[in-house]
Amino acid sequence: MSGRAQLMWDEAVTGYDFGSSHPMDPVRLALTMGLVRAFGLDGAVDVRSAKSAGDSTLRLVHREDYVAAVRSASAAPGSADQAYGLGTVDDPAFAGMHEASALIAGLSVGAAEAVWRGESRHAVNFTGGLHHAMPGAASGFCVYNDPALAIARLLELGAERVAYVDVDVHHGDGVQAAFWEDPRVLTVSLHEHPRTLFPQTGWPEETGAGAGEGGAVNVALPAGTGDAGWLRAFHAVVPELLEDFRPQVLVTQHGADTHAEDPLAHLAVSLDAQRAVMTACHELAHAYAEDGRWVALGGGGYAVVDVVPRSWTHLVGIAAHAPVEPESVIPASWRDEVYARTRQLGPARMTDGRTPSWKPWEDGYDPADRLDQAVLATRRSAFPLRGLLA
């Protein structure tokens, strides 16, 4: 198995563009790749593209009529059928929508294939993580659900246990829905509470159904949760589940919209805590997944200059076993690129100046604390279904 991580990239992903007034500005992808290059990480990974997901691959998750509707809206955006979630405020139709969405999906599927086949232990597609798309509808800025498609391809290739951990500020509803009754897939989502944020799902009582009962785990965090609470919740839930499940592959989604500066949500997490969770996911993959197999995806994130590029550059460095130190000064060449593209001043260092710490769950909990209440609700709902102590 290769020691070098794979980084999935194709300049054409910036064609995933909902328009100038939409929060999901594709400049965030270009700036991330620019920062990866500025730190020389493109020399520490194998950078490659992949085939766009074809219809047979897309149908592993999406309905045939939905794929046809996306193709139609892509060719004639004015004819988009809102019954499929297309042509809406969240998911405006645009020319080439099918092609750009299928490419991003293909990159995630390609990452999964590379890891499964032993071409690399780790693969990153920060352009992916579009976790809200449903089998028959676009949702939440997501047209095709590339994390679900990557997992479905792993199952098709013979995987019997795949774990998906989603730390985006929004619930990973589309991935959960895709594998709701499938015992081969464990989905874990840490997100802002559905009372205060889209998509209003991800309650701790959502635990799967049928043969998949206990296969969905949701941690609904109170608005305002910061580094200590976020890290405490992650470590109180995720490692124990992965130790028990022993996935053959770990797939993780690293939406950067948990950050305090993100304009669309209400958590207060720092870049340094995001980096800490990425490092933890890397360590958990080596501890519990077969041969350390890890597929890491991007996701949300709408502070497109100050947060997203730094966060996902850290992700690439961690996956490459060449982590960027938080105190690293950001190269002037990249800051010049930021100004040229956005007329904004880019950040100067790869840190928010925080040193994240948290109180381990094993040290006890406070039943009157809102964060601890959230963790308790998750453990009590999901853990006994897996034979674990709440």
From TrEMBL:
InterPro entries: AcuC, HDAC_I/II, HDACs, His_deacetylse_dom, His_deacetylse_dom_sf, Ureohydrolase_dom_sf
Pathway(s) served: Ketone degradation; acetoin degradation
Keywords in alphabetical order: Acetoin catabolism, Hydrolase
Boundaries of every Histone deacetylase domain copy: 22-316
Gene3D superfamilies membership: Histone deacetylase domain
Protein family according to the UniProt entry: Belongs to the histone deacetylase family.
Name the record gives this protein: Acetoin utilization protein AcuC
Annotated source species: [Kitasatospora] papulosa
